[in-house]
Amino acid sequence: MTSTTAFFAEDEPLARDVLRDAIYAHPGLRLIGEAADGASALARITQLRPEVVFMDIQMPEMTGLEVLRRLDYLPRIVFTTAYDQYAVTAFELHAVDYLLKPFTGARFTQAVERLLEGPVHARETVESALTQAAQAPARLERILVRDRGRIFPLSIGEIEYMKADSKYTVIAARGQSFLVRIGISELEAQLDPARFVRIHRSALVNLDFVESMRADEQSQLQIHMRDGTVLGANRDASKVLRDMAI
User: Fold this and answer.
1) Listed residue (84, 103, 12, 6) closest to 50, CA to CA
2) C-alpha of 101 from chain center
3) For the chain: N or C, fewer Cβ within 10 A?
4) Does 204 score more than 90 pLDDT?
């Protein structure tokens, strides 16, 4: 079986590792290059001329959309991003598919199958991908995190709580804190709402690690975690948590 040459452009190291491993593991793809910014992606793709490209949209120096517009040929493209507001532009630039991060292994495989099918109607496939993501987001089972130069899978069940930090999310687990470049809203969409509760705009808690909840003077709940951390719930979240109590 002849493998299809593949290239990916992604500026976030952890996401690069995920894509690299996924491409290497797929028998229908042969990775021939990668880039961490838009300018390098344009130069490398022009030089290597891969058949398929996995392209992050938001990158330093040049966006993935700008890279594609400047290419002198049209590879089969799968855009990868944490945001879906670029869908219309993806249609216009003939993307074969559109992976919303964080994506599962099954979703990646589905995108590759579309890539290898040959010519497809771009608008239909990208629209289908977005519809599937909106209607039935897959539940995450694990997430890859970094710690002192190593990368390892962290089971979702081990996560105690998450806090938003600018473009990043801080994950508390195993008595440590891990920083991932995935927005807390994107993570929340793929977590079990019966276990993980958004207690305010920038924090999610795993109820399995909650020691107790106590109301403050404004009747809003203070969440006492098993590790001693205390997190405040807003009024709406406090009501949700009270309603969950038997």
Assistant:
1) 6
2) 2
3) C
4) yes
Cα–Cα distances (Å) from 145 to 2, 89, 171, 178, in that order, read: 33, 31, 9, 7
Residue 128, CA atoms < 13 Å, CB-side half-sphere:
13
DSSP summary character for residue 41: H
The residue ranking higher by pLDDT, 235 or 149, is: 235
* Alpha-carbon span 245 to 234, nearest angstrom: 17
Write out pLDDT tens, residues 133-182. Answer: 444 445 677 787 877 777 778 888 999 999 988 767 899 999 999 988 77
Q: Are 129 and 98 in contact (CB under 8 A)?
A: yes
Confidence of residue 230 (pLDDT cuts 50, 70, 90): very high
Pick the CATH number of 142-244 from 2.40.50.1020, 2.60.40.420, 3.50.40.10, 3.40.50.720: 2.40.50.1020
Which amino acid belongs to residue 182?
I
* Burial class, 3, CB count within 10 angstroms (exposed 0-12 / middle 13-18 / buried 19+): middle
Question: Residue 96's closest CA among 80, 108, 79, 109?
Answer: 79
Classified by CATH at the fold level, domain 4-135 comes out as Rossmann fold (3.40.50)
Cβ pair 176, 125 in contact under 8 A: no
Q: What are the domain boundaries of the chain?
A: 4-135, 142-244
Buried b (16+ CB within 10 A) or exposed e, 117-152: eeeeebeebbeebeeebeeebeebeebbbeeeeeee
Query: Quick one: pLDDT at residue 193?
Result: 84
